[in-house]
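U., I forgot to send this yesterday:
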Amino acid sequence: MNIDHYLKIAEELNIKLKQVTDTVGLLDEGATVPFISRYRKEVTGSLDEVQVAAIRDRSLQLRELDKRREAILKSIKDQGKLDKSLEEKIIAAETMSVLEDLYLPYKPKRRTKATIAKEKGLEPLASLLFEQKSIDLDSEAAKYISNEKEVANVEEALQGARDIIAEWINENVELRKKMRDLFVEEGVFVSKVIPGKEEEAIKYKDYFDWTEPIKSAPSHRVLAMRRGEKELFLMLDSCPEELVAVSLIDNVILEKESNSAVDQVKLAIRDCYKRLLKPSMETEVRLLTKRKADEDAIKVFAENLRQLLLAAPLGEKSVLAIDPGFRTGCKTVCLGQQGQLLSYEAIYPNEPQKRIHEAGNTIKNMVEKFKVEAIAIGNGTASRETESFIKSLGLPKHVIITMVNESGASIYSASDVAREEFPDLDLTIRGAVSIGRRLMDPLAELVKIDAKSIGVGQYQHDVDQSALKNSLDDTVMSCVNGVGVEINTASKQLLTYVSGLGPVLAQNIVSYRTENGPFKTRAEIKKVPRLGDKAYEQAAGFLRIRNAKHPLDSSAVHPERYDLVEKMAKDLGAKVVDLMSSEELRSKIILKNYVSETVGLPTLHDIMEELSKPGRDPRETFEVFSFQDGVNEMSDLKIGMKLPGIVTNITKFGAFVDIGVHQDGLVHLSHMADKFINDPNEVVAVNQKVEVTVMEVDIPRKRIGLSMKSDPFAERGKIKQKDRKEETKVAEGDLAAKLAMLKGKFR
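Result:
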């Protein structure tokens, strides 16, 4: 990558050139984003994960640009058409669109109207017309009439010349740039329902007759309109006013006021716009807006996923988990403190069987036998009925009863991972196990499921799937490494996301652990087949070994810094374990005494922070949550009700909240706070407990409107009062206009 690219990245990210070059160097050596941001702060100047990932992604884009540039230069050179001026322009091009514009005249084409006209020998006539000088049009065109070239008359000759001119105009680099800017700045999305599909397309009712500037259209509306178009419910146009676009071309191309040649060029301009430029620009702008909408949607999905993965874990407790149901019963499992399956049963406390007494005895026996400390109930079908049943049993007060979001549990239960874990169990039993483990450790369980199936995204099936996967993989890796992984209990799936490992080494670790017993030291990890020095360097700091021989093996201190910590302890006449337990001892350490060429204050501060809380889980403490008793269905809702809820999904336009009625309600952005906010993430996070007020209930459309404002209905009165004032102003304005018209008429 050349120096200009490094400078460009530094400027875009507002960081120093050295930070970019050194970070790219680490990435090229195979270092991961979590490792670089955590353990190479001196090299990068303390760049965080977001900045390191941005450098990685932008450098890849610029390398792709260079790759395309080389291919274009070679293609034009092979054609014998590469002069110095064109080469300089291609080398100077900073975007893919500019590169492609420069290449367009030289790009191998299918047989076009222009190429056919050129084959008929009409290019000289096109050149003559394009000069826009005053000529005898008919006599000049008549020179090209030829039976051999299949030009029957003057009009055919002129038409062929116009086809050639239209292609020249379409390939004008300056014009294409201006037209592209026009489409972005002045373009408008126009969405209309396809006649006759009004009922079938009811979910797209908002877009039956919708107009919106392209540059300000939010991602969720762009994706919604495109989906409606793809499903053949909507017609979608995305262009500026045609007169404005054609006028722009006139200003660039036309050199004279009017003559017969200019008139021919004008015809070519209008043909070029409709047949070539408009479709090309519309495609580009739609790709551009789609890419931007994808980026926004993927960002929302990734942030939601992060919050979900980092949800507070219950921890190592014995759990009874229930996958609730009606006709098929409730699949019930008991899990040990490490998540191992101890027992499973099916109970039928709900309709139609209502074997309440039998189900109650089963639950009480399981709670007593397995010393159950918490009960996890999936939040799907029959969840509230099952919750009411469990709460009616009079179980010991220390037993926690809580609902768990089961989104994606069915995906897990039918997956290869679940079949490998529980080959002899029914899918529903596997689902119940997943629900229980999610309560114990959401991160460890959710990594087993394809992130797209977890249900916290916005139009996740409509966005670029490769970009989505890369972003979600980054997010999962960031969360896994941020929390740290206990190597002796972690699943293969969890280990896969540890920096430097991947699926093969993760499987090798599990196999080694099975054959040789638990790892006793981090150094022992090097004995795992195919796990070399580089992988060990990348992974070791994120792997934990509880009760290890070396006290730092349970912390986030990297093994490469053990000697440094041991020197700190020795200088104080103490042991490492003493530093980890004594704040007084740590306060005596003078950090500047340990600065070296490879270790600076950022790393030393990280070490001190880790010594003060070695291996502590950074996630929040678990809190029990319960829905409002007696509110189980949408029909139970009343306008003005205040209810507890839990945030399940966040979008650009608001947040969805589960209030326990089997249908999430929407808190629109305008109702998320008493003050104005731009982004829902300013006030809520996925899994956050909130109190909401019911504003609207639409049972046929399964829509619930909620508010988080302290007095949501007060605003309605203000709006009505404001509307009345506006109506008065409009009426007064209309009256003034009419009076002015009458005065003019009778003056």
